[in-house]
Request: fold
Amino acid sequence: MSEVAERLAAAELPRDLGDGLVMRRATVADREPLASLHAHTLIDVGETAPADRVYYWVLDLMSGEHPSIRASDFILVEDTAAGKMVSSVALFSQTWTYDGIPFKVGQPETVSTDPAYRRRGLVRAQFEEIHRWSAARGEVVQGITGIPWYYRQFGYEMALNLGGGRVAYKPNVPRLADGAAEPYRFRRATPDDVPFIREMYQRATARSLIAAERDAALWRFEVDGRQAKSGIRRVLRVIEPVAPGEPPAGLLIHGQKSWGGRLGVGLYELQARVPFLAVTPSVLRYLERTGEEYAERDGEAFTAFSFNLGERHPVYETIPDRLPRVGPPYAWYLRVPDLPAFVTRIAPALERRLAASPQAGYTGELKLSFYRDGLQVTFQTGRITVAGWTPDRIEAGDAAFPDLTFLQILFGYRSLDELRHAFADCWADTDEARALLPILFPKQASNVWSGG
Reply:
């Protein structure tokens, strides 16, 4: 973000919100009190405040050492009469890809408000401001994870897979044959492993329609930059054959403690021509040993481990009977403030899909109604252009998508048929719409690992 854009984005701050409340940008001096606010408000049901996992996470984010966020990327509301911070939101800037096409994303995070100050519009005021910051940075999409329904108030739609996975229990772990030696070991990753880590991450994200780019600096921070008590600090293990002289086989990333008796895996990837059938039994035994070590250390039970690798992953197909429980994905909230511009940006991906289909070389148009506004998609021998369009009557257009539901097929979260089944006012009434929309916007899985 340029210095000029920074000044424009913050031109109206600090801002008096009335009743002694002032909204302003955070500084490094706010680091500890802001971390304390979040540690007392961003807590799970049944968790006791303050949550160390949140406190140390926010300290990391505001330390100046995190490669993709700084203290001034936080906005806060301060009660000047009471002399305390009462609400805050942060904005992560990152780059995601859509079928390989990069686009800038702003991710609101650490959204919290002191309970005594809720239902007073403080989060809304902060979101309006960080949306301005995000626009000034050239971010064409905003995405956030969070509680059901809440962020719909601010122009977001649940439109992209979030999480999902498979769960295994201790009886599902295969045992080594008597006298057999474990063929793989699990070495703690070091900064020297970052090129290999990036290679494995790229292999993993190649299966995802939407993916987050992660540079070397962010991976170095993952390896040795986070504070030990941060709730999102991860353990990175390079999987190596025990046999000498063999190259690394893959990468395993998991949590540094169990949650609710379960140890979570965030990434499991292998080199090309290294079969999952060969390595996965060793992975299961390693996870069981690690979970039991955590249980002894923390005085908690260990009952299971979960591969939180999205809706689809090779390990699910490799050992389906050893992963008896399916965890369905939740959803990212997404906001696309200029839909014609975004669809234009990803048009090369749509053109590739069209060229590989029975409708290759099509010439014509599709008018997609969102009832208040819409899109006109024009095809010229397979090339696509996109413009805004306003329907002149309720029935106008080739297809209709109420409210923000079009985002669900745009990001592969739902198919056209699924949307038509769920929403009676979603329809596709022409041959062109029924033939072209499933080609342009097929249902596709994503597993986005953002940059916090």
About this structure: The chain has 13 helices and 21 strands. The radius of gyration is 24 Å.
